[in-house]
Amino acid sequence: MDALFIGHSYIDVTMLAPCLPQGDEKAIAKDYAVSFGGNAATAAFCCAKLGAPPDLLVPMARDWLAHMFQDMAATFGLRLHARRVSRSSLSFVFPHEGQRSILRARDDCYLQDFPRLDISSARLLHLDGHMADAAIHYAKAAREKGILVSLDGGALRPHLLELLDLVDVAIVAMDLCRKMRLSEGEMLDFLAGKGVRVAGVTDGARGLLWREGDRAPPQRQPALKVPCERVLDTSGAGDVFHGAYCASFLERPDALWREHFDFARAASAFKVQHLGNEAGLPSKSDIALAQRRLCETV
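The chain above was modelled as a monomer; its predicted structure follows.
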């Protein structure tokens, strides 16, 4: 095991439609995609596409949607570890004009304890705050073994503040700042106070404000500017960002974090131009092309 990702898993149905039906109406979508979903799960698929397939611990039912997710994981070389639930979780995603609305059905009533895995050979643990008991357990184990712990802080989930005490790299969403009533700068200070070594806040097109250590000045890395007419589906762009910087770290652990984040923002720029998570996973050559074509427009 080189890396372990822990989070919630979904099957995503993404539908591109000019409008959503109301009441007793019917409508035909212009296009659709069916793929894996979930924050850490999508990040794991992205990491695998970039040449570093991790282990993935997620809730898993015994139903047809779970078979679909397992087939997708096998295609990408992911090693799945299941925590049983009654039903698979499902998301309906509706992208529209650079935004997206999401309707989810989630089962997080676990039927069993989480599996105990040997992570002694791992170099990275990536979490999204779901399955908090497992996340805290493995974050403690990673801290004892000197394994880098990365967190996608997209929402104020139960036990998140406790988990932050065990995190090395925390990239959180602006939504979390709003929930905690903190500005970007105040969030960076808060994360540094929790012992986070590399802290950042993402805010859509404004990109990433981040800092390494508690004394260095914050740095702004704006998102690469994708022409509006090419932005198709922004859902999953943040998850791809996390998966890409994890892959970059695993390939070049001694590189600067600025380089990891440059790589990741190009991955996100690729994602938003494709419908659904699977089509939006970039290869290394896709990222290199995005860096060349879009960096001049930042």
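The longest strand covers residues 10-16.
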